[in-house]
Amino acid sequence: QRQLVESGGGLVQPGGSLRLSCAASGFTADNYAIGWFRQAPGKEREGVSCISSSGDTIDYVDSVKGRFTISRDNAKNTVYLQMNRLKPEDTGDYYCAARHAARSECMMGPYRYPYWGQGTQVTVSS
Description:
Layout: E1 3-7, E2 10-12, E3 18-25, E4 32-39, E5 46-51, E6 58-60, E7 68-73, E8 78-83, E9 92-100, E10 115-116, E11 120-124
Parallel strand pairs: 2-11
Antiparallel strand pairs: 1-3, 3-8, 4-5, 4-9, 5-6, 7-8, 9-10, 9-11
């Protein structure tokens, strides 16, 4: 059974950092593109970042470029999202998702991903 488990969320002050982890089990994540998504209260789920199975294709939503970094450790079946210089508008539930894809394929649309984790909450507030 494919399973994704997010961790690393929490409460942080503006300007602070968090590192989210997405641990995959039940499948070999290095055959899958992984995306990070977030959903704020009352808003639609949006793509934050994605990384191809090979790791050589990466994308970010404009609002996080220069602040967030996605990476993957296929040996650990884990994908990370390093979030720096956090802002209150980064607040939301963060989800990772997986899609079997070509090695250099990465997509930001949540509807493209069939497998999802349960989410981890990120709150940026003073």
